[in-house]
Amino acid sequence: MAKRLLGKEVNEALVASLQTRTAALREKGVTPTLGIIRLGANPSDLSYEKGATKRAEEVGVAVKNYILPEDASKEDVLAVIDEVNADASVHGVLMFRPLPKHLKAAQDEICNRLDPKKDVDSMTHMSNAGVFEGQDLGYAPCTPAACMEILDHYGIDCKGKNAVVIGRSLVVGKPAAMMLMAKNATVTICHTKTVNTAEVCKNADIIVSAAGVLNSLTADYVRPGQVVIDVSMNWNPEKITSKGKGGMSGDCVFDEVEPIVEAITPVPGGVGAVTTSVLMKHVVEAAEKV
């Protein structure tokens, strides 16, 4: 049976550390503050906002909400971003993306209007460049950063290891690969056009699965001794309980993969559980730099 890499344990350590750091900031007269920009009331946005607000309260981070209608104009959104840029009391900003369809063509312009110093979830090109160049130019996306927090917390040394990342999105796959490389892993990225992904994965020491495809990582992809970080959150109707709860699964066919590998993150209860704590860590770091 594999060791389960639980987000709960990572959160407990992060929260304790952040509580100490926010207390130190408050003694200096600084209240670390997160600004949340939301357009409309998308259920997934509301769910994440609720979780982030709860985590903020727990660690001592204040939250300012900037709520716009779903049909807000580009000018309306840019005005809010200019407002938070100018507000010295707001240290970090989270804007829910993707933006509504009518703003799709302007999303890059809107995202890059944010001051990179306040970009705590890598929405600007500058933050992305920082991840790829290994420079302190902003903050990495919270999800791949949560993967790294889990590896660090459980003492999983990436140096000299072969790592495979499944997925090449700018939100998870590509930055996760760069962050693993920064830990001196040798990294391969697999995607929909990769030939023999299962064979590539079997040669890995660490697998980060961010395909976003239910049941795509089976026993054929793994071998004993591996660490599997399952990033994805997929809807799985077979997991709904008689009480109507549950329904979320990762990419792994967990019952197949878990008995084989050395360690694995569950879904739910793994990477997703750590992302809001990482968001707060970035806000606190931004406040400490002021």
Q: What would your notes on this structure say?
A:
With 290 residues, the protein is of the alpha/beta class. It has 2 domains: 29-115, Rossmann fold (3-Layer(aba) Sandwich); 142-264, 3-Layer(aba) Sandwich (Rossmann fold), CATH 3.40.50.720. Helices cover 39% and strands 15% of the residues. It contains 10 helices and 11 strands. It has helices spanning 7-27, 43-59, 74-86, 107-111, 125-133, 142-153, 173-182, 197-202, 254-257, 275-289, and strands at 3-4, 33-39, 62-68, 92-95, 162-166, 186-190, 206-209, 227-230, 234-235, 248-249, 263-264. The strands form 3 sheets. The chain has a 6-stranded parallel beta sheet with strand order 1-11-8-7-5-6. The protein has a 3-stranded parallel beta sheet with strand order 3-2-4, sandwiched between helices. Strands 9-10 form a two-stranded antiparallel sheet. β2, α2 (43-59) and β3 (62-68) form a beta-alpha-beta unit. α2 packs across α10. It starts with a strand and ends with a helix. The model has no long low-confidence stretch (mean pLDDT 95).
